């Protein structure tokens, strides 16, 4: 009898451990929906300029750090007052007393910290200006007909990687003679005509210096520089930042962004390494 009961319980346990057909179906549906759900790239999350929906009164880490000097100063001031009250010293400041002189110095330091905290709270840094670039969209990156298949792959990799890993929104490569080797992203309005894309460009002093003398340049807030007019022939007129990198001694890489100060020092070092890589590819791939 005991054996029969044990076998019955074991059979029930095995039956309960095996998922039903409906359970297996629901599990497969959940796995399928998880695989097909859209994923947001790390660059899209990092470069998203939409403010987070924070409720009223929500404190961020930046707010706490800015207010910390005021908190430290208030704590210091209260500690000095408590120490003064408990030490039995007369409440009137006496210049001949070392305790009074130390308390005065401590209160001055506490007041300085409190004022510093209030100043940091009032002066919050403004977010970089981000705009929608106005111009002709170059859906398929333009590459000169003289480029070999290997060079085309190299330029396509450069553009794809730059727009995913950095705040690069437009890119162009020119030779020192003004030949347009490649351009991608959003260009000037005139570049909506394919014939204009095939035409040479007159390089301005900034791009010419990079292509012939190897002088890099970074214009973090392009609107403040009078030399921005030289980029308007191939980039949108409202481009916010431009990085110019020499490619060897005969070409130039120009990167534009829709964000002011959007290209970090790390991005610029990466562009310099890419320019060295493109130097070899251009020597081999332009016929």
TrEMBL record:
GO cellular component, alphabetical, reads: chloroplast
Question: Could you tell me where the Low complexity compositional bias lies?
Answer: 34-48
Species of the source:
Ostreococcus tauri (Marine green alga)
Q: Keyword annotations for this protein?
A: Membrane, Transmembrane, Transmembrane helix
* GO annotation terms (biological process): cytochrome b6f complex assembly
Q: What's this protein's name? A: Cofactor assembly of complex C subunit B
Spell out the residue ranges making up region: Disordered: 16-61
Question: Which parts pass through the membrane?
Answer: 104-123
What Pfam families does the database record attribute to this sequence?
CCB2_CCB4 (PF11152)
Signal peptide span per the entry?
none
